Amino acid sequence: MNRQRVRLLWFIATLLGSLFLMLIPLPSPLTPLKPYWPALVLLYWCLQSGDRVTLGLAFCIGVGADLFDGVLLGEQALRLTAMVFIALRFRSRLRFFPMWQQSLAVLAFLLNDRVLLLLVRVLGGDALPPAEYWISPFVGAAIWPFLFLILDDLRARLRIHEA
């Protein structure tokens, strides 16, 4: 198999894997700790391969996540598109941050995502969420260094490097 096909398959596999990780059910006390996997994987690809991740791709992944999750159609598409827009805008700076600063930036992205979700849900007529609603971005930021290193290591083992 040629390298370009392997790169594309790895890219698609990680995005689909993030959608399936989103579907894993957790016990109700652990549900607020569940990170937003599609956002984390899209952020990884924004930093590693900015030309491959576009706003259109973020929108499509978001619509897929909406369909998988059974929420309001376009809700996650809006959130992921906004996050990818900001990440691509600051990609050149974020790539060279040390890991702890990248984790703080990921926390800011995920908190921004939660604020957008809150706005969509409140404008849709839902009540304000409980305090546990804000835990997930912190879990995502704590997972970020491990996710980044695992995906980067797998990319290196498969010898998938951008041209």
Automatic annotation (TrEMBL):
Domain of life: Bacteria
Stored InterPro entries: Cell_shape_determining_MreD (IPR007227), MreD_proteobac (IPR026034)
GO biological process entries: regulation of cell shape
Subcellular location field: Cell inner membrane; Cell membrane
Keyword Transmembrane helix part of the UniProt annotation: yes
Transmembrane segments: 53-73, 94-111, 131-151
GO cellular component terms, A-Z: plasma membrane
Keyword field contains rRNA-binding: no
UniProt entry keywords in alphabetical sequence: Cell inner membrane, Cell membrane, Cell shape, Membrane, Transmembrane, Transmembrane helix
Membrane topology of this protein: Multi-pass membrane protein
Job of this protein: Involved in formation of the rod shape of the cell. May also contribute to regulation of formation of penicillin-binding proteins.
Family label: Belongs to the MreD family.
Protein name: Rod shape-determining protein MreD
Source organism per UniProt: Luteibacter rhizovicinus
